[in-house]
Amino acid sequence: MGTLQVLRESLTAAELLKGLGITVLLGRFLATTSARQQKGALTWNSPIALGAITTAGLFFLFLVARSWLALVDHHVPEPYLDEFFHIPQAQTYCEGRYWDWDDKITTPPGLYLLSVAYHKFWMLTECTPLTLRSNNLLATLLTALVAARCRSLIEARSAERDGGSTSQSLSYYSYHTAINIALFPVIFFFSALYYTDTFSTLFVLLAYQNHLLRVGLDKPSVLNDVWTVVLGVFGLFMRQTNVFWIVVYMGGLEAVHALRSLKPAPADQSARELTLAGDIRYYLWRASVGDIHDLPLNLSWPHDWFFSLATIAVAAVCNPSEVLRQAWPHITVLGLFAGFVAWNEGVVLGDKSNHVATIHLAQMLYIWPFFAFFSAPLLIPSFLSLLEAPLRLVTKSAKIPSKPTLTQPLLKPEEPEKPLIPGITDLLFVKRIYYIPYILGTVLLSLAVVKFNTIIHPFTLADNRHYMFYVFRYTILGSVKLRYLLSTPPHDQSPLDPPPTTRLRKHPPPSKSKTTVTTTPTPTPTPPPPTPSTSSPPTSTALLWLLATTLSLVTAPLVEPRYFILPWVFWRLLVPAWKPAAGAGKDLPGLGRVYQLGQSIDLRLGLETVWFLAINVGTMYMFLFRSFYWRDADGEVSDGGRVQRFMW
């Protein structure tokens, strides 16, 4: 039976109406919880228009995911790979035998319990591979819904920090970002297979949405605290490693929010000692009362990262009650998880022999090529920035334009100022002489990790059904030079930096008049507040993301794209919108039109959608139509003659 015939028989009128009904409900829910009520003309922020547009996007997502499910059910009707363990276990739960457990399963039973509830809700009498797989189709739609709310709340919290007006309205950037997150190939592929990844992502995002709502309140209620614990436990019921995101990342963000909420009074610098020891005492005192150093990421340098960590640590030690009051639900989740580990004598359920935690630092080098490949469209601003210089040379228009371009600072350059403390601090924090040694140090450290900590798990090279087998075979194991080349970590500009990347200088000397100003270890002039959707996340958020990512990856000896899902999702939610400066590139052939179009819509989003769809079509084709058989040394078919298929 041809592909079109399969789709025609699967996407019946009843099935389409069912999907339309679900997406209408989800779209209306998103619209009513996100849109501003406006009178008059129909705008993006009106509930009717927003509901229609979000419904259209969700229905498109439903059509793509339902088509994928239909094709998988037709070509792969029996359980495949890990489904050999998950589907029988879910069927056991559907029969009410909740204490029967397959010891080969290493993850908690959250997915199976949800499947039982799913079948009871839809009044399904039998847990078949198709009905169990359809669980993840619904989870994919809900993931898009929750991701849209998360991005919208991120923009609202960003506006609060910048001192601008706040709104719960859903921006187009938030909406389209959420659709792209649901289409992310490593997530979308498993929307038609009975794996834990889709629901695991959904429940962690639900916990994150709750966190973003909590930090928008003056004081969370006890009921919300309890709900935070419940969501955290649900997240751990999906996958144990979610503890790093629920406890470390979100718990850390809650602690930083508690410290920001202290809002100490402005300090008078007139009595400040202009010595190194005086500066240290002054900044320690300011940190102790909650004046933490937390610049937007695009304005920070490595020394700002250090000061951010140092001032947050000092503030937390000096204000433990405020931190505990805000973060106790996450500490409770950590305690419950520790109790589970003690009871289970380990993190992994079932077979522990092939899932032994280890230190695998090379994981933090693999993640950057992974991000660069999947998020290539988000690097367009950096690519265009590189094109400007040669184009100006060709067009003989190298003069600085009157308005800032993509590569120029938004703030006017200032003359160097006399440093507050001469000598070593001037060299470190104004001239930043450490930066080149810092880059060289990170490169050398990366090369050392490649040489001494490259771990090749037996599963990686024993199974040629996974794409990582070929990645390792033709890169990590194929060429020593390529292995070291890929180990170089990213530096300077990141997609988290809204272009242009503006680097600010050290603070000016204090005025002789007795004015009061709020200070941080390296105060900087306050730039005009950006629009919420283009705001860069705080340095503390990026550092907590890096910490959670490191903990979740370096403890895993096996390299799997699925392990990168949550780091990518949280990173993608933090990526700000791109809007070129007015008049950028107007004197450059071709680029001016691109920048002009970028004024009205973020061009990266559409390209990201097309890119993800192309990857999905490719992996779907390989899985369905490029099957093969394993053969032994004599050429005889092995593994019982089962069909083998390519997958993530």
Shape: globular
As residue ranges, the low-confidence spans are 36-43, 397-421, 498-532
Order of helical and strand elements: HHHHHHHHHHHEHHHHHHHHHHEHHHH
Strand composition percent: under 5%
Question: Helical stretch count?
Answer: 25
Main location: endoplasmic reticulum
Pathway: Protein modification; protein glycosylation
EC number: 2.4.1.256
Family: Belongs to the ALG10 glucosyltransferase family.
Describe this structure in words.
By secondary structure, the protein is mainly α. It has a domain at 1-192. Helix content is 58%, strand content 1%. It has 25 helices and 2 strands. It has a two-stranded antiparallel sheet. It is globular, with a radius of gyration of 26 Å. One of its GO terms (molecular function) is dolichyl pyrophosphate Glc2Man9GlcNAc2 alpha-1,2-glucosyltransferase activity. Its EC number is 2.4.1.256. The chain crosses the membrane at residues 16-35, 47-69, 175-195, 226-250, 365-387, 435-455, 610-629.
Describe this structure in a few short sentences.
With 648 residues, the protein is an all-alpha fold.
Protein topology:
Blueprint: H1 3-10, H2 13-34, H3 47-75, H4 83-94, H5 110-121, H6 129-162, H7 172-183, H8 185-188, H9 197-214, H10 222-238, H11 243-260, E1 267-268, H12 276-288, H13 302-318, H14 320-344, H15 363-374, H16 380-395, H17 424-430, H18 435-453, H19 458-462, H20 467-476, H21 480-486, E2 516-517, H22 539-554, H23 565-574, H24 591-598, H25 603-625
Antiparallel strand pairs: 1-2
